[in-house]
Amino acid sequence: MSKVAILQVGPYPAWDEGPLGEKFTLHRYFEASDTAAFLKAHGSDIRGIATRGELGANKAMIEALPKLEIISVYGVGFDAVDLATARERGIRVTNTPDVLTKDVADLGVAMMLAQARGMTGAETWVRGGDWASRGLYPLKSRVHEKRAGVLGLGRIGFEVAKRLAGFDMDIAYSDVEPKTYAPDWTFIADPVTLAQHSDFLFVTLAASAATRHIVGKQVIDALGPDGMLINISRASNIDEQALLDALENGRLGSAALDVFEGEPKINPRFLELDNVLLQPHHASGTVETRKAMGKLVYDNLVAHFEGRDLLTPVL
Ligand code: 8YV
């Protein structure tokens, strides 16, 4: 029996590509120089998409695949998948929740600490010889016992807040409603008020059309010249132009960012700033988590084509 054809939208580590390639015929979209011609050539056979969180599957891609049955996302975020088109066509969608939650939270907290204590600059201070020639590194502000705001207390936000509690921080959060699982933290419905009440504001919202630019000029100004914004969700949750303006003119103290509009080609204005910590969208990037994510992508595809229940369905 011939293998089911899958459109592979982005690369995976070898330990995922191996089993996927044995089980399915993989069409490697990301290696095509003319993607439209590629879809035209292979589109009529393809029954599944294996994609990554940030790459998703847009309307044009889904529409080019008349036999498409399932989209399996390597990532918890499925905002880049055109869910409306998938729903209309009865196409199933899966993601990789839970397995990455703690790694994403770990990186968010690490970014806060690294940025607050100036660790990137401190490393350069040592390596560049400034320690020996200029002496002590400039003093930074502390993190413990400060006020943290968590915008979106879902799985990842909850794990961030749990970690911040270990630093004796005063924790508040925004969400659509107060969470019964967060009795010790202050619920503040309005993001602007949350920002006013925060020294460090974490953005941990699942991105959607409704949350686009939820962190805009008002939230940024409320966080203020001594505040720090940490984004481990999606770039679309923040108005990036407003963020850049505020970082450039000191209306916002600093930022630590793992996600960017148009990544990996980020706005060059970020590179000119010394009050921002830049990370290459790697919050889920540990071997352990990526292996678990790859296994879920594979297991969901196999379950679907063997007629079994999906493990982590979105649709
Ligand atoms: C990426 C993510 O998917 O989980 C998500 O939504 O954005 C990440 O885990 C990861 O970079 C793999 O592409």
TrEMBL record:
Residues 32-314 form the D-isomer specific 2-hydroxyacid dehydrogenase catalytic domain. Residues 109-283 form the D-isomer specific 2-hydroxyacid dehydrogenase NAD-binding domain. The keyword Oxidoreductase applies. Keywords: NAD, NADP, Oxidoreductase. One of its GO terms (molecular function) is NAD binding. Gene3D superfamilies: NAD(P)-binding Rossmann-like Domain. InterPro entries: D-isomer_2-hydroxyacid_DH, D-isomer_2_OHA_DH_cat_dom, D-isomer_DH_NAD-bd, NAD(P)-bd_dom_sf. GO terms for cellular component: cytosol. CDD domains: HPPR. Belongs to the D-isomer specific 2-hydroxyacid dehydrogenase family. This is Lactate dehydrogenase-like 2-hydroxyacid dehydrogenase. It comes from Mesorhizobium tianshanense.
